UniProtKB/TrEMBL annotation:
Gene source species: Kaistella carnis
GO molecular function, one term: oxidoreductase activity
Gene3D superfamilies: 3.10.20.30, Nucleotide-binding domain of ferredoxin-NADP reductase (FNR) module, Translation factors
InterPro entries associated with the record: 2Fe-2S_ferredoxin-like_sf, 2Fe-2S_ferredoxin-type, 2Fe2S_fd_BS, Beta-grasp_dom_sf, Cbr1-like_FAD-bd_dom, FAD-bd_FR_type, FNR_nucleotide-bd, MRET
Protein name stated in the entry: Ferredoxin--NADP reductase
CDD domains: fer2, PA_degradation_oxidoreductase_like
């Protein structure tokens, strides 16, 4: 995950020492930070979570989020980072950070997580695109170590073989857990002699994977491996997530069992909106943001709340616009909204009045929300 805008609420940072820096491919590298004993409790984390790095560059303070590749039992913070251009924040980190430097690192957060079930027989399927492997790798290491009855299948897409990040670490996991982990690599810009593994990971590939790889189950001769899937993990670009998530859903996986994480902005809904809403015009909106009070009027409710506030140039925090990252989380203090699909809020949080502005359709003439979550 690599997001640009933090939530309105305060993020806690601590200075951590860089213990290791390693170039992985031509445009990806890893950073490993030590966790001092006095900060151990603040840096307890779950597989799949992320941290924010705060770094000064050319007189400006930049904050960006990066998913961790480390598993909780490793007691370090390890990141996988892709360099998209010479002017990028990632390249600034790569060129300037040296082992021994101290960097401001936020406490871990994020909800691309799974509930541990060490006593159950589970089948988990993961799809990763490019540097989207980072939180998936954290999950693989954690599950293989803590859930001895869980088997995992990873489908990992890259443009070419040379661009596969963490290939050695993944292969070492396969060697260590050959009966529980199976990995298949896909290449969108390289021929490998088998059409199944050429091209992007998308809905069509999911259908082929189900029919050609996740076939007869050795543990149950009357069903397929796909029939036994308990959870799906997806991390990559928005279009990839949208295509694969919908394919998994249409092939029988419940939406609540399909978990995904974006590593860039995405402005579309992951699942189609299947409900029509009554038209409401001239909606009055009051909201609190960064300890400031704002008031505005929405023309109607044809566009979701966050998108309308952004159109009006309000500095509302966001990243994905798809109900995944939680950056636009706020409290509904007055009025009514319909919260569409979201991958972030729990049922308990929804019941307490928390909403995601990017997934909220306004259903009353007036609403009041608090982005400061207090």
């Amino acid at each position: 995950m690599e997001n640009l805008v933090p939530k309105a609420r305060q993020i806690e940072f601590h200075r951590l020492k860089l213990a290791k820096k390693q170039e992985l491919t031509k445009n990806t590298f890893s950073l490993e930070f030590e966790i001092p004993s006095e900060l151990a409790s603040q840096y307890d984390f779950e597989a799949g979570q992320y941290i924010t790095l705060k770094f000064e560059s050319e007189g400006k303070i930049i904050q960006k989020d990066f998913s961790m590749t480390s598993a909780p039992f490793e007691k370090v913070i390890t990141l996988g980072i892709k360099i998209n251009s010479e002017e990028s924040f990632a390249n600034t980190l790569f060129q300037n950070l040296k082992v021994g430097d101290e960097v401001e690192v936020s406490e871990p957060r994020g909800r691309f997580t799974l509930i541990a079930k060490p006593h159950e027989f589970r089948t988990i399927v993961a799809f990763a695109g490019g540097i989207g492997i980072t939180p998936i790798l954290s999950h693989l290491k954690n599950i293989l170590r803590t859930e001895h009855r869980t088997r995992l299948f990873l489908f990992y897409g890259n443009r070419t073989k040379k661009e596969v990040a963490f290939k050695q670490e993944l292969e070492e996991l396969v060697q260590k857990y050959p009966d529980r982990l199976e990995i298949h690599y896909f290449y969108s810009q390289e021929k490998v002699g088998n059409g199944l593994f050429e091209g992007r990971l998308d809905a069509k590939k999911v259908a082929l994977i189900i029919n050609q790889i996740l076939q007869l189950d050795d543990t149950d001769e009357e069903s397929t491996i796909w029939d036994a899937v308990d959870a799906v993990l997806i991390c990559g670009k928005g279009e990839m997530i949208k295509s694969i998530a919908n394919a998994c859903y249409h092939h029988g996986i419940l939406k609540k069992n399909i978990h995904f994480e974006l590593f860039e902005e995405f402005n579309e809904d992951i699942y189609p909106i299947e409900k029509e809403f009554p038209l409401i015009n001239d909606i009055s909106v009051d909201f609190k943001l960064f300890n400031n009070e704002y008031s505005t009027t929405l023309k109607d409710n044809k566009i979701k709340l966050l998108q309308q506030l952004l159109i009006q140039k309000f500095p509302v925090p966001y990243s994905c616009k798809s109900g995944i990252c939680g950056s636009c989380e706020c409290i509904l203090e007055e009025g009514e909204v319909e919260l569409l699909e979201n991958e972030y809020l729990t049922t308990k949080e929804e019941a307490s009045g928390r909403i995601l502005a990017c997934m909220s359709v306004v259903l009353s003439k007036k609403i009041k929300v608090n982005f400061d979550l207090n």
